[in-house]
Write a structure and sequence with these properties.
By secondary structure, this protein is α/β, with parallel strands linked by helices. It has two domains: 3-126 and 235-308, 3-Layer(bba) Sandwich (FAD/NAD(P)-binding domain), CATH 3.50.50.60; 129-232, FAD/NAD(P)-binding domain (3-Layer(bba) Sandwich), CATH 3.50.50.60. It is built from seven helices and 16 strands. It has helices at residues 3-6, 19-30, 57-60, 62-73, 147-150, 165-179, 282-308; strands at 10-15, 35-39, 79-83, 87-93, 96-101, 113-121, 125-127, 143-144, 158-163, 185-189, 195-200, 204-211, 220-225, 228-232, 235-237, 268-270. The strands form four sheets. Strands 1, 2, 3, 4, 5, 6 and 16 form a seven-stranded mixed β-sheet that branches. The chain has a four-stranded parallel β-sheet with strand order 8-14-9-10. A three-stranded antiparallel β-sheet has the order 11-12-13, with no helix packed on it. Strand 1 (10-15), helix 2 and strand 2 (35-39) form a beta-alpha-beta unit. Helix 2 (19-30) packs parallel to helix 7 (282-308). The protein starts with a helix and ends with a helix.
């Protein structure tokens, strides 16, 4: 049952079930703060970690995060988890906020509003994709959207980097410097429109590129053998539902205080990649979620004291 149906509001609503959201919900609920965690699914940035290189990776990324979070958060008395729910809007109310959802997925609810005293936004960002054959099925199988995250896993291998200088320029330049420390060869494609397909069965084997034409029209297809493909077209913050509540920056991120995660709207906090910080990664997001949750808990305590006084 949702908060709307029971009439019992939550103290905190955490929106997003990636590293930042899971970390925040865990800390808040461990302190006895009535928390609802709302997200489409547990998960994090694309790419498969290598636990031998990063001991935190197994609990911070992808399907491993989903399994670890589900097991760890199950049965926590102060926590309600609502997966399969997409937040459509947040409305300010006299005693806090109403987080509206449109249900869907494996959610038990359909179009409910969760009433809460405070909100923490941790919806992250989504990579801009090529939308070509082979890209989706080979994601996590040689296709990556984060050079800094995954460069070490391509040590001694051939890689192709596909970028659009207008969107992913600065991030790509920094990533290339890191990638060249590890990869055997790096091929840079600066016109995404020429890439026809990513090929491979269980792993990436090649990239098919149109040569001699304009974009994907005319010319001749050429096959570039490769072990990995980095798609660097920039990322889009998942902030559509919050445009009426917050003033977003030009790129659509949620501006938040770097120390506390507080936004300009009292009672609304943000953490992780959705804030547009300089170091987008699962580990940074996990730390930011924890820090924002601590600040949020202090905010709730001060608010309670003020109301008692």
């Amino acid at each position: 049952m949702s908060a709307t149906k029971t009439g019992t509001p939550y103290d905190a609503a955490v929106i997003g079930a990636g590293p930042a959201g899971v970390a925040a919900a865990d800390l808040l609920s461990s302190r006895g703060i009535r928390t609802v965690l709302i997200g489409e699914r547990f998960g994090g940035p694309p790419g498969k970690p290598d636990s031998r290189r990063d001991w935190l990776a197994p609990v911070l990324r992808g399907t491993a995060l989903a399994k670890a979070a589900k097991a760890h958060l199950a049965g926590v008395p102060s926590l309600t988890v609502r997966l399969g729910s997409r937040v459509s809007a947040i409305r300010r109310e006299q005693r806090g906020f109403a987080v509206e959802t449109d249900g869907g997925g494996d959610s038990e609810d359909s179009g409910d509003a969760y009433r809460t005293r405070v909100v923490l936004i941790a919806t992250g960002t989504s990579p801009k994709r090529l939308d070509i054959p082979g890209e989706q099925p080979l994601s996590d199988r040689g296709v990556s959207y984060c050079i800094v995250c995954d460069a070490p896993y391509f040590a001694g291998k051939r890689v192709v980097v596909i970028c659009d200088e207008a969107d992913g320029g600065e991030e790509t330049v920094e990533g290339l410097a890191e990638l060249r420390k590890h990869a055997r060869t790096v091929t840079l494609i600066t016109d995404p429109g020429t890439v026809r397909a990513i090929e491979g069965d269980r792993r990436v084997k090649a990239v098919r590129v149109r040569k001699g034409g304009k974009g994907r029209q005319g010319g001749k297809d050429v096959e570039l053998k490769t072990d990995g493909v980095f798609v660097q077209l920039g990322r889009s913050p998942n902030t559509g539902p919050f445009r009426d509540l917050l003033k977003l920056d030009k790129a659509g991120h949620v501006p938040a205080d770097p120390g506390s995660g507080a936004t300009k709207v009292p009672g609304v906090f943000a953490a992780g990649d959705v804030t547009g910080g300089p170091y987008p990664s699962a580990r940074v997001a996990f730390g930011e979620g924890t820090r924002a949750a601590l600040a949020l808990a202090e905010y709730l305590s001060r608010d309670s004291e003020r109301k008692r006084g």
